[in-house]
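Can you please make up a whole protein chain along with its backbone structure tokens because I've never seen that pairing?
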Amino acid sequence: MHPSQATPSAALACALGAACVLALTACSAAPTSTPAAHEASSASTTLKTMAASAESGNTGAGLTPLGDANTTLKTERPGAPSQLLVTNIRTGKHEGFERVVFDLEGTGTPGWFIDFTDRPTQQGSGNTVKVDGDAALNVNIDGTVLPFEVGHDDPGLKTTDGHGGFITQVVPVGTFEGRSQFFIGLKGQHAYSVQALEEPTRLVIDILS
């Protein structure tokens, strides 16, 4: 007897069958997007949107102040080394609180020394600073530099008004020995909180009604 030989058509059928098996195996191994990844991306986008809305000047429902608020002195050392420049001042009015945001550029994290004062005076010179309102919050941001020290144009900070609430104005006083000074004028003393935020870097002061 002669050994049986596979016909050409049978060999072709076997080859096609093997190819189909390989294709099905490759398809089943392909990674698919998971609901968890989609949910994480959506949550991140929502948080960024909420943060942007919370710092706008318009009144927004559902926004809450950051941190624990009271009327006592608050201080925090800056991250070392820090070379930060205050580039902008913003104010916002929200339900139950008002907000002041100091935008910063540079490296490091800001420190602060903040307290109420009955006599607003400029650090270094001791000159009296005129601030509208019945109370003044002395805001000192530490870890800051002068514009030329970081090759930056002078941001030209000017007095920034509030939005018709109890914040009357924010007065920039100047930078001296690594500390930038501001006064927040208020209609009476209010509990406040301080929070440093990143990406972008900013210092947020929330003042309760």
